[in-house]
């Protein structure tokens, strides 16, 4: 467990980093957050992956809920680095969060000093988010949020109740992960990760519009193209997954993980496929500073 949390401009002991039970975000889900990872590099130093890209998305996510984060992007980036350094962590998961504080008297919020915006940064040793094996996956009965009901590309706290309800349906079962469809019945994404499909050595992924704008997704798309694979962003029917050669998930927490079965149907040979393995290996090289071409994604912790 992390000993220090950055809260509203200062590092505080874990037990002192608190918020009021009447905070607006607790009642209405009005917050935005990011999931970021830092990795120990090949030379023993620590670097945060895609820090600027994540914090940029955090600020973009704040716009739909009229949130003006009271720090600059650079200040939040510095807070992330300071938190990782202060906790003397090597490879770790990092959670920046901005949310509306007191009071929750109405759903509507307006720029008002009486409804302050709180900002925290928490870091801890997560380890593997999902097992590092070919996953058993189920297509969920719950659909991904409708694009006319919310800003689906934003990482807003309240959105994840959708994922939670879907995950509860596989709780206690053999399934490791799920796939959510969009309102038209096309494949959207996993519970907290983006999805890719490989067919005849072409890499496919659902187009933007009903999915989270994934940072890892974008890195993997660029990586796949650099490695010579054709990448197509398109609508994918769920039945196409069953005949795919490979299916895999990407995300900051999950990194790159293969699907072995979907709705009990074996994908490929049921193991991590060669293209998934290739992309996973090369992605982790980026994370660990072993591919200088991608070092612009790395922010050293000094």
From TrEMBL:
Reaction catalyzed: L-leucine + 2-oxoglutarate = 4-methyl-2-oxopentanoate + L-glutamate; L-isoleucine + 2-oxoglutarate = (S)-3-methyl-2-oxopentanoate + L-glutamate; L-valine + 2-oxoglutarate = 3-methyl-2-oxobutanoate + L-glutamate
Entry EC number(s): 2.6.1.42
Cofactor(s) essential for the protein: pyridoxal 5'-phosphate
Keyword Chloroplast: no
Keyword terms: Amino-acid biosynthesis, Aminotransferase, Branched-chain amino acid biosynthesis, Pyridoxal phosphate, Transferase
Function: Acts on leucine, isoleucine and valine.
Protein name: Branched-chain-amino-acid aminotransferase
């Amino acid at each position: 467990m992390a000993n220090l949390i950055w809260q509203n401009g200062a590092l505080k002991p874990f037990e002192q980093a608190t918020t009021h039970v009447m905070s607006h975000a607790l009642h209405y889900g009005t917050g935005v957050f990011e999931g970021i990872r830092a990795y120990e590099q090949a030379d023993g130093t620590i670097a945060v992956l895609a820090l600027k890209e994540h914090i940029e998305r955090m600020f973009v996510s704040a716009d739909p809920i009229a949130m003006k984060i009271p720090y600059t992007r650079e200040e939040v980036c510095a807070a992330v680095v300071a938190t990782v350094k202060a906790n003397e962590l090597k490879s770790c998961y990092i959670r920046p969060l901005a949310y509306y504080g007191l009071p929750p008297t109405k759903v509507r919020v307006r720029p008002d000093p009486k409804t302050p915006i709180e900002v925290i940064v928490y870091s801890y040793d997560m380890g593997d988010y999902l097992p590092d094996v070919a996953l058993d996956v189920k297509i969920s009965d719950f659909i991904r949020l409708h694009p006319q009901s919310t800003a689906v590309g934003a990482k807003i706290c309240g959105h994840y109740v959708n994922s939670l309800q879907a995950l509860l349906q596989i709780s206690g079962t053999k399934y490791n992960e799920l796939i959510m469809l969009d309102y038209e019945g096309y494949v959207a994404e996993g519970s907290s990760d983006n999805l890719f499909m490989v067919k005849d050595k072409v890499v496919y992924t659902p187009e933007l519009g009903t999915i989270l704008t994934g940072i890892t997704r974008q890195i993997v798309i660029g990586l796949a193209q650099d490695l010579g694979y054709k990448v197509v962003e398109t609508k994918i029917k769920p039945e196409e997954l069953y005949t795919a050669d490979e299916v895999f998930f990407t995300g900051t927490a999950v990194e790159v993980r293969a699907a072995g079965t979907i709705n009990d149907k074996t994908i490929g040979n049921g193991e991590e496929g060669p293209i998934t393995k290739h992309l996973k290996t090369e992605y982790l090289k980026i994370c660990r500073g072993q591919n200088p071409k991608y070092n612009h994604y790395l922010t050293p912790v000094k």
